[in-house]
Amino acid sequence: MTGTSRSNVRLLVAALLFVLPASGCLFGGKKKNNGPSTNSSVEPDKVLFDRAMDDIKHSRYTIARLSLQTLINTYPDSEYLAKAKLALADSYYKEGGTSGFTQAVSEYKDFETFFPFLDEAAYAQMQIGMAHYQMMEKPDRDRTQAEQAEDEFQTFILKFQQNPLLPQAEQRLRDVQEVVAEGDFRVAHFYYVRDTPSSYRAAAARLIELTDRYPLYSQSDRALWMLGDIYGGQGRNEDEKARFREVASRYYQRIVRDYPLSPLVADAKQKLIAGGFPVPQADPAALARMQQEQQAPHVRRSIFRTPMGMLKSNPDVSMAAHSGQPNLNPPSDTGGSEVLRQGGVSSVGGGGGGGGGSVAVETVPAGSESAPGTGTNAPAASNPPAATAPATDPKPATTTPSPIDPHKKASDKNSKDSKDKDKNESSSKKKKGLRKLIPW
Question: Within 13 A of 192's CA, how many CA atoms are on the CB side?
Answer without folding.
Answer: 23
